[in-house]
Amino acid sequence: MAEIGKTRAGIAALVMALVVGWAPAAAGQDGDGYAESDFLSRVRRLTIEGKRAGEGYYRPDGRMIVFQSERDPDNPFYQIYTLDLETGDLRRISPGHGKTTCAFFQPGSSLIMYASTQHDPESKALQAEELAFRESGQERRYAWDYDPEMEIYTFDRDTGAYDRLTNVRGYDAEGSYSPDGEWIVYTSMRDAYNRDLPAEEQKQLELDPSYFAEIYIMRADGSEQRRLTDVAGYDGGPFFSADGAKIVWRRFDEAGLIADVWLMNPDGSDQTQVTDFNSMSWAPYVHPSGDYIFFASNKLGFTNFEVYIVDAAGAKEPVRITHTDGFDGLPVPSPDGQTLSWTSSRAGGDGAQIFLARWDHAKALEALAAAPARGAGNE
Amino acid sequence: MLATLGFAPAVAVGQQSPAQPHVEALAADALDGRLTGSAGARGAADYIVSQLGAIGAQPLPGRFDFRLPFEFTAGVNDAGTSIAFGEAAWRESEEVQALSFSDSARVESEVVFAGYGLVVPESQDFGYDSYATLDVTDKIVVVLRYFPEDVDQELRGILSRYSGLRYKAMAARQRGAKALVVLTGPRSPNAGLTVPMTFDTAISGSGIAAASVSGTVGDALFEHVPDRTVEEMQAELDSGNPHVAGFAIDSVTLTLDVSVTREQHTGYNVAGYLPPTGAPVASDAKPYVLLGAHYDHLGHGLQGNSLARESERGEVHNGADDNASGVAAVLEAGRALADVERGRGVLLAFWSGEELGLLGSASFVDTEPVPMAEISAYLNFDMVGRARDNRLALQAVGSSPNWEGLIERANVPVGFNVQIQSDPYLPTDVMSFNGAEVPSLNFFTGSHEDYHRPSDDPAGINYEDLDRVVRLGTIIARNIANQESPLEFVRVEQVEQQGQRASLRAFTGTIPDYTAEVEGMLLGGVIEGGPAAEGGLLDGDVIVEFAGQTITNIYDYTYALDAIKVDEPITVVFIRDGEKHEIVMTPTARR
């Protein structure tokens, strides 16, 4: 669930791509005849406070959303918040220090899972260092650092108790629950730290640790951790489908340049590529109907990420949903499939925020049915 | 599905909006456009007073009447201005007319011609001072209107900002001149005409006698200048060369007798009070929350700020959106707030004189019927009845670091696509309260093609969304009334000097959509028959290039406007339906 737009590897790769002339085709891709308003109505900005916010995931009853936001003046890193969609009540559920990301409600309980460095004794020093850097007036390109201290936690909204579920060196994050609440599928870079790396891989680790990221699964209490993928390059951002039968995730190539959407069974079998979109196609999420998958891609330009949908079998070309310059990504449908939450830079300023809109499911099905067969539009 | 609850309308379908009767009552022809000081405005005040009574509001603490009178200048007239030199004298208004900000005075003195009378501050990296080589102490200064005609675009952008008549009068006075005479040169728009007395600059005097004269008077004066006509002199100055100097006209003594009368009238703010329901907070915790909207409008639009087109000139300007909508919002928010727990008292204020220059709110801030230091926040509603595409602009957010959080939480159940704008220097009553260090927030649904026209009628109001504005305002006000500490005020630096915009003389007929967050300048409308409409621009177009300058926001656009020239075609590049287009349009003169 880490944003590609903020990955070091992603930026480096894209800059390279521009230099060598891999120009994303803008013309011809936009001509499917749909406008944003065909699929999305009553677009609204949800989060307002703070520098940036993103990754808004619904509670299974649809009444609450959990998200990450940089809004605490004392902490320059994301913290995790819940927002009650009926009352507007806001609550920070992470402890306030450290870096956090990628939260998710456990179905049927008061637990929220998220990734955090809150145990790291260095975390407050790192906050102070980042604040001092920003105070100095310097700006760095927003970068996600895959902190090896990142571990998966739960927070109990009833008791206020924190529980650490992973305890292995290497970034553990990007987790989400199975619909029955019994399993957590997540991303880990532990493979870079649990063995002696050959020189070439050591270099790779220094350049871009996300190369070592693989999909793992564990029980909701943190037991039975096991690996599901074994392909070089960043495998990340896994989510279960609403019926629990499939896991959707994104798989990067080794260079960190191209990503595509994949599906597999929860035991890791039957890994199937859904998109072949020749771009950074990531942040997939299956619509509750199971008919199609939301994802984000920069098909139309370096920093212009847009939200797309693709049929679950990947038989058709994706259909473009958003039509706004800048970043539109991390699409998440509400549990009833009627509303879309996504992260967008459309409000201006230097950070993205979470937006909501009514989602036209019937129109989406119609557009997918009319889409050309996969590959038909390509050379 | 509860996630969509936030989208539910406040009122069931088919039921009338509670705001609608207010809008229809205030925007009725019977109230005659609610011009400040008029019978129509008094009728509007009567309506508001009766509604405050119905809500259960009281007059402000220590008062017995909801009405708060204030004195204001209702108009300015030339009461007989004359000019004489040599053998000749003129007194007709076609030949000599007081400038609206002039003092009344009779001045007899020697004459100095000071070119365009321009002084550009040194900070502009361009030295231009019409007075550099002149001694004008106790003299009468004669200057040309506008600024050099033949300079390039960049220089136009600079000079135009310092060419307003009030600014020129100030420059002359600061150099010791006794009077200013303005002549519109033969090479300029409105050549040879006296300057109409506009009300917007007439609120107060300028400490100097000032009048405009006709081409006839100018020519007569230049007969005392050897070897030069007005036109030849202007041609020299029009190159923009800062070394072309003015000169004393030694051979004449000029008598200027300026007489202006300013009519003083009485306007009425209306204000009600909902006391706290429990134990009130301490006075150092700022025990009041203020909600306000101006209720005055333009009458028949004869005061100089109407945008009525030729065929509708002089008709009643009903002002349904501007600002019967805001009044309705404050009344309905007040009704809702009357029924909830309130740790702070709620003030409901209705300003008059807004259209004449924020007069009512300025008077309230000056006279402090409630101490400014005890007001924790001000919520202003000005034009909130024309929401489109679920958009609502919330402006002046920079006035407090607390606004973003308050707006975020309150908007969750209401669901507007809010556009957050920081700048508190807005042409509405927020300006008065921001100046008094009260954290302020302005609700605004955007400009439109009926803005300041007789067609701003109740039929154009989006009541469903007006009701949602009321809900949002109510929740924010309630949360402020009940939070422990008052809001923190932050003074936002003002980016550009206001007031110099009076120098703007090119008319394009574009209506910017101030609520938009787009790369470029989104048009909320175009004035029918104006240059933009003639050129083919439409409501919804996004201007990205204007007269060779790239436009990324409204500020770029206003700067670009400074640099264009009347009657000189310019190219405009704009986006329509995702496609780039280009048109040519020709700005006309604004008198």
Description:
- The complex is a heterodimer of chains A (379) and B (591).
- By secondary structure, chain A is mainly β.
- Helices cover 13% and strands 34% of the residues of chain A.
- Chain A contains 5 helices and 24 strands.
- The two termini of chain A are 32 Å apart.
- In chain B, the strands form 5 sheets. An 8-stranded mixed sheet of chain B has the order 1-12-14-13-15-18-16-17, with helices on both faces. An 8-stranded mixed sheet of chain B has the order 3-2-11-5-8-9-10-4.
- In chain B, helix 9 crosses helix 11.
- Chain B has helices at 20-26, 39-55, 153-159, 165-174, 215-222, 230-237, 320-337, 359-367, 403-414, 430-435, 463-482, 531-535, 554-562, and strands at residues 67-78, 82-85, 88-90, 96-98, 105-113, 119-120, 128-129, 140-144, 179-183, 209-213, 247-258, 260-274, 288-294, 345-351, 375-381, 391-395, 417-420, 440-444, 506-507, 510-512, 521-526, 542-546, 549-550, 570-576, 579-585, 588-589.
- Residues 1-11 and 496-503 of chain B have low confidence and may be disordered.
- The A-B interface holds A 30, 42-50, 58, 61-63, 83-90, 323, 325, 334, 336, 338-339, 346-348, 355-356, 358 and B 1-7, 389-390, 404-405, 407-413, 415-420, 475, 517, 519, 578.
Question: Characteristics of this structure?
Answer:
heterodimer, A: 379 residues, mainly beta, Neuraminidase, 4-stranded antiparallel β-sheet, 13% helix, 34% strand, B: 591 residues, alpha/beta, Aminopeptidase, Glucose Oxidase, domain 1, Pdz3 Domain, 3 domains, 8-stranded mixed β-sheet, disordered N terminus
**Can you list the strand order of the major beta sheet of chain A?**
1-24-23-22
Name the beta content range of chain A.
25-35%
User: What does the radius of gyration of chain B come to?
Assistant: 26 Å
Shape of chain A: globular
**What is the beta-strand fraction of chain B?**
15-25%
Considering residues with a beta carbon less than 8 A from a beta carbon on another chain, report the largest interface and each chain's count: A-B, 34 and 28 residues
**Architecture of chain A, according to CATH?**
6 Propeller
- Helix percent of chain B reads 10-25%
**CATH domain topology of the largest domain in chain B:** Aminopeptidase
Order of helices and strands of chain A: HHEEEEEEEHEEEEHEEEEEEEEEEEEEH
Query: What name does CATH use for the topology of chain A?
Result: Neuraminidase
| Largest beta-sheet details of chain A | 4 strands, antiparallel
Rg measurement of chain A, Å: 19 Å
As a percent range, the share of helical residues of chain A equals 10-25%
Look at the structure and give the CATH class of the largest domain in chain B: Alpha Beta
- Total domain count of chain A: 1
Spatial arrangement of strands, main beta sheet of chain B: 1-12-14-13-15-18-16-17
What is the number of E strands of chain B?
A: 26
Q: How confident overall, as mean pLDDT of chain A? A: 89
Second rung of CATH, namely the architecture of the largest domain in chain B: 3-Layer(aba) Sandwich
Please describe the biggest sheet of chain B, giving its number of strands, its sense, and whether it closes into a barrel: 8 strands, mixed
